[in-house]
Amino acid sequence: xxxxxxxxxxxxTAVDRTDDSLEGxxxxxxxxxxxxxxxxxxxxxGSGILHLFSSLLIPQSSCTAKVANIIxxxxxxxxxxxxxxxxxxxxxxxxxxxxxxxxxxxxxxRALGNICYDSHSLQAQLINMGVIPTLVKLLGIHCQNAALTxxxxxxxxxxxxxxxxxxxxxxxxxxxxLVKLFKKQIEHDKREMIFEVLAPLAxxxxxxxxxxxxxxxxxxxxxxxxxxxxxxEEDIAELKTASDxxxxxxxxxxxxxxxxxxxxxxxxxxxxSWIPSNNHQLQLAGALAIANFARxxxxxxxxxxxxxxxxxxxxxxxxxxDGNVTVQHAALSALRxxxxxxxxxxxxxxxxxxxxxxxxLKSEMPPVQFKLLGTLRMLIDAQAEAAExxxxxxxxxxxxxxxxxxxxxxxxMGESNRLLSAxxxxxxxxxxxxxxxxxxGIKHLVTMATSEHVIMQNEALVAxxxxxxxxxxxxxxxxxxAKLVQILHRLLADERSAxxxxxxxxxxxxxxxGSESLHKxxxxxxxxxxxxxxxxxxxxxxxxxxxxxxxRLAVES
Length: 557
Fold this sequence. Notes:
One of its GO terms (molecular function) is guanyl-nucleotide exchange factor activity. With 557 residues, the chain is an all-alpha fold. The chain contains 37 helices and no strands. The protein has helices at 2-16, 19-35, 37-47, 53-56, 64-74, 81-86, 90-96, 102-115, 120-128, 131-141, 146-159, 163-170, 174-184, 188-201, 205-213, 216-227, 233-249, 253-260, 266-274, 280-293, 297-305, 308-317, 325-338, 342-350, 353-358, 366-380, 384-391, 394-403, 410-427, 430-438, 442-448, 454-481, 484-493, 499-512, 516-524, 527-533, 540-556. The longest helix has 28 residues, at 454-481. The termini are far apart.
């Protein structure tokens, strides 16, 4: 009843604006909310006074902070959030973020945070109303006020999850403010709060660069140095957060290149020192960082010339038996990227990278299998000798054929097929073809010719043409049972097939003529009709190859 009286009184004083009696009413409400928030909130909603609050949220009044505090308390209840929006409270609250009064700011921030809690659409509305630049400015002005700082950080953490916020954040000096704040924090919990804002913001490339320029990396390296030997749980967690964030900053092209500094940079050198450390988290971050630095040829060449390959091979060696899967995956990712520039391939081959990588053939972990395959494929590109050596390795080829059937792991399956094809294309070796035929690999190359990816179809057709040219007798039975001729007929008849697919299919048809049984299949399927239609193809090479193939078919028949 006491509450009902207060609510009645509030309706009158809110209109008359007698601050003293208004203040008394507000104090009663706050007291009631402190005793039983849910019940009091229900009564306030029932009384219909919520809409009066918007007229009480004025900068000049001494009661404003209390009104905002009441709204913040009400909006702790989910059922009160939409009524607060409907009562038009968001706009006057946003206006109050320009206040100079720290208590008003704090309660206003709480109120907005609670009303918009967990609602992406309301948070997006706040972003559109321009709260981000306002809050960043507040953080700069009131960085001595712990409660206000925390309120800003919580708000940033919620808003940064929305994609639409990133551009607005990027146009403020948030990076500078957060780094400045971070440097002052000694307590783990406070630093963790800042980390929770930094991580989503650092997904944006422009902000990555701003954070690097504001000196965040130096802070992160310092944390790593302080925490690396600690076995306290919170230190281990902070080491992980700092090193993960470091790797995230390197995902931006500009921020990565800035930190590489031609391979002479302090940051690059420090990250290098993580790889031989005994801390798994640092080994992981170090290898991932190298994989990120290895995103352009210049960096890759510099790193290979300066001994990075040996460091990564040593790291892999430490993780062969019961190793850490994430470290294996990261080190293989780095080696794969480093193997992309042509000049690095021979150097890495003679350093023994293939041998180091093949130790992981027995791995049952798809992510490791995937990177292992990718690394080998990069290494043998245009390296005939290495391709021949690997292609005659029965253990490897058998494992590839097994992985070509890994239906649950499309990535591993695709990479295995591509490596099988690459072994043939780059070695052009009869022995390699024989090994692949004996291991049952032909059917997979034929299936690969029907892939949805043109690049894979093409690689398969070129490999099959080499098989037909070099070892047709050996592969004949397998090509027949894999229904290669029918597949080629389908590829040529299909209008959606890319020009290079049509071209290579016709080259392959001509090569198959040397086999009596396959030749018969070609004749039975009336290829002449399909091929003669392609003589008028808009692509010159396809049209020419169609004429040649047509002549060949006519002569043979």
